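Troubleshooting: if your tokenizer reports a length mismatch, compare your output against this known-good record of 413 residues.
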Amino acid sequence: MIAAAWADFQANFWLYLSMPLTSGLVGWGTNVLAIRMMFHPLEFWGRPPWLGWQGIVPRKAGKMATIACNTIVPDLVTEEEIFDRLDPKRVTREIEEPILRAVDQIVDELMYEYEPTLWETLPKRAKKLIIARVERDAPEVVETVMAEIRENITEVFDLNDMVVSTLVRDPELINRIFLETGRQEFVFIGRSGFYFGALFGLLQMIGWTLYKGSFQLPLFGLVVGFLTNWIALRLIFRPQQPRRYGPWTVQGLFHKRQPEVARDYARLIAEEIVTPSHIIEAVLKGPYADRVFDMISVHVKEVIDAQSGLAKPFVAWTVGTRRYIDMKNRAVERIIERLPAAVRSVDAYAREAMDIAHTLSSRLEALPPPRFEAMLRPAFEEDEWILIATGAALGMLVGIGQMLAFAALAVAA
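Known-good structure output:
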């Protein structure tokens, strides 16, 4: 029997050699496809709800963002810590010029809107005096509001909500976070699929040499597709702590690269999500926007009343008390509309002062492995079986193709 098997092996050497190569390619292809299915397509493709597919990461963007936030906030960084690093006086100096330009425009716009005739007849010197008096107090208002926001930051800013909203709004961004922080792991998944697939192919070749059961090829294809995906995922995350096996020290690739992953992850969070512009937008348009509006409104209206001074009764009589109140409200609205553009000038200082990237990186590096893994893996872990099952199904299809090809060759012979 062994002699006959050896003779058949020699006669069909290239056919047998194709088995480990084919298995390696199946392992590589199913693993690469599994990675692709994790991230693409961004939107559901097919006929919802069951006939079709959407990448696991974009489909679960909200859940993933929430899990990441539960790790980052409040254990690694808090709203108070971020804003405590900003000096209200320095912020005022940084945005003073654009704020003064905005005040100039707003005063001019409102006066033309509410009392165009009076504003037109005023001498230029009088107009400049009115605008100058408002501009004089504007920096003090900015500093006061900034200090008040910092003191009541948890009442006007929700870091969790900002991060989750940003990621849900931009699924491509959450894909980038995974792909850039886990780039080496994903390369490993593809390569390991080929290596383990080729190894299983050698076993398949030996089994086919000794016994040519038609079921073997689809069965081996299924096993290769299943195990290459399963083993690759296990090797990325297990073991969490370094373990010695004789002369070798083994640790899950993701955990072994924790310092590097932490740096990349922190950099992306600081550059793409927890940015000064996003924070300002979240403060002005987030769930506590009304409180911020009220806070700014109080101080702006006080300045308008103070500048009216003795002329306030005359102003109220000229434009009407209701219109005077409405004018103050419109002034607040327009200031808040222009604030996002005005505060862009503080970006460089705010990034340096907040130092989000360094803070997160150093603290993520210090996380124990179970908590570090819990930051990224659990949201898609429950769907890993889909990727593994898909790999198994594709491997079995390739095995059926092999079986048909071998049968055709046997008939031809």
